[in-house]
Amino acid sequence: MPMVFGIQLLQCVLQLMFISRPIFQSCICLERYLAVVHPTVFLRFKPLRYRLACCMVEWLLMLLYCIIPTFTLSVIHVLYLLVSMSLFFLVLMLYCSVHVLCVLKQPGPGDGSRGHESRNGLKRKAFTIIVITLVFTSISHVLRVFILSPTLLFASQQVVHLSQPVHQHRQRVHHPSAVPPQTWKTAMHGALSR
């Protein structure tokens, strides 16, 4: 029983670790998107109470995501959920970042005035920061989906296999049905030919 609880606790902590970063990065991308693409909406939701409410909802969703699947879904389903959520947050961040980059490439309403060079410098700096963030975020999400998820699936299957009671493991090893059919036939043929 303690081993099962330890495995579930480890699974819960791993899920919290893997889902918290994409959620917070997505919120940062959404905030950047609102600030650049829809500045009037951003100004309406700028007060601190909206940000605190958003943070509380995020933490509630993360805790629910960690607790409910851990105790109700199998390991394979939890990994599929993790992969699908990672892909969802990757698409959301790509959408927001690409739209912000498109808006930054367009000339602003006052680009013909004296402060044109300083604004272009700020736009270039923001553009560079967003591109760098987008590249590294995309790489980390792709690595998470294609490398880390299969590794976790394999490791979780090994832990489940090792967590079985020893007497069940021994019975399965010594039972004739545990030996592959071809090996069993070969062993029987060798025993009969003596």
Specify the overall morphology: elongated
| Cα radius of gyration in angstroms | 26 Å
What is the string of SSEs from the N terminus onward?
HHHHHHH
Mean pLDDT: 75
The proportion of residues forming helix, as a percent range, comes to over 70%
Low-confidence regions: 187-192
Overall number of strands = 0
Largest beta-sheet details: none
Total separate domains: 2
Oligomeric form of this entry?
single chain
Structural class category? mainly alpha
Strand content: under 5%
> Helical stretch count?
7
Task: Report the end-to-end length measured between terminal Cα atoms.
Answer: 47 Å
Write the layout of secondary structure elements.
Blueprint (H helix, E strand, L loop, with lengths): L1 H36 L1 H6 L3 H25 L2 H31 L10 H47 L3 H9 L6 H13 L1
Helix pairs in contact: 1-3, 1-4, 4-5
